[in-house]
Design brief:
By secondary structure, the chain is α/β, with parallel strands linked by helices. Helix content is about 30%, strand content about 20%. It has 7 helices and 12 strands. Strands 3-2-1-4-9-6-10 form a 7-stranded mixed beta sheet. Helix 5 crosses helix 6. The protein is globular and about 50 Å long. It starts with a strand and ends in a 7-residue tail after the last helix. The model has no long low-confidence stretch (mean pLDDT about 90).
Length: about 260
């Protein structure tokens, strides 16, 4: 069985809590729209997001983590710690795999069925996916390297996570795998351990570009990104300039597979 962990930032640091809740509601519905009923969802949050959607496979883990300070590193670290809390919470379920899902992204409805047919695999990285600017009638297809740009990109066998022996206080929470805070690292780190991930053989995720959701990098200014990592910033700028050439019409089939319905404003 696969478990999806959705870490949600504190309301105190949300750019817009109502907008984040709308994005979360859509993301949660997409996760639960799986073709296989054999999955669980753990939402790790300080405050439960406002949503009318209920599903028997969804549980909320409310934590009292302090809101992170300013800066890319501490925000990414906060997300990682929420995922670690989720990993501890699902231990009793004995899942085969875990996928962390940003609270604004949408995933393919075929993921649970595919993973559950391959319970002994080390896992997969999402090499193919889509980039979507919220409200657009088009979507950009990314045929390789998707895992480099989106945090919703790794499906990892539960046995491969390195966790502290027990859940400890927020400010002391260490020992988790560095790829929880640096999603592109999973592919290389797990290969170096002798437990390589495979490329997911189909487009797995829609990376939703918005300013209110869970993407820390989307909320950084260009100058902040440049100071943190000039090479990454240049690559990102190049990708954005080339994105229109990869755009296609957002079809009903894509909307249905990924639960990417229009948000009400």
């Amino acid at each position: 069985m696969i478990v999806f962990i959705i870490p949600v930032k504190s309301k105190k640091v949300a750019t817009s809590w109502p907008d984040l809740c709308q994005l979360f509601d859509r993301s949660l519905r997409a996760v639960c729209n799986q073709t296989s009923p054999d999955f669980k969802v753990i939402v790790v949050c300080n405050e439960k997001p406002t949503t009318s959607f209920e599903h028997p496979n969804v549980e909320y883990l409310c934590v009292d983590f302090p809101p992170p300070g300013e800066g890319y590193g501490v925000k990414v670290d906060d997300r990682a710690k929420r995922v670690v809390a989720g990993l501890f919470a699902v231990k009793h379920l004995q899942p085969s795999h875990v996928m962390s899902v940003d609270a604004d992204d949408c995933i393919s409805k075929h993921i649970a069925e595919f993973v559950n047919k391959n319970p002994d695999k080390n896992g997969w990285y999402v090499d193919q996916g889509y980039e979507y600017d919220e409200g657009s009638s088009k979507i950009a297809a990314r045929k390789e390297g998707f895992y480099r740009i989106c945090g919703t990109c790794n499906i990892v066998n539960y046995r491969l996570f390195t966790l502290p022996p027990e859940m400890i206080q927020y400010d002391q929470l260490t020992g988790y795998d560095r790829f929880l805070g640096g999603h592109p690292l999973a592919k290389g780190d797990l290969a170096d351990r002798g437990t390589p991930l495979e490329a997911l053989p189909f487009p797995g995720v829609v990376f939703v570009r918005d300013q209110a959701g869970e993407s820390v990098s989307m909320q950084e200014s260009f100058l902040e990104k440049w100071k943190r990592n000039p090479k990454e910033t240049l690559r990102g700028l190049k990708k954005r300039l080339l994105a229109p050439f990869n755009e296609q019409v957002l079809t009903d089939n894509i909307r249905e597979e990924f639960g990417l319905y229009p948000l009400l404003k």
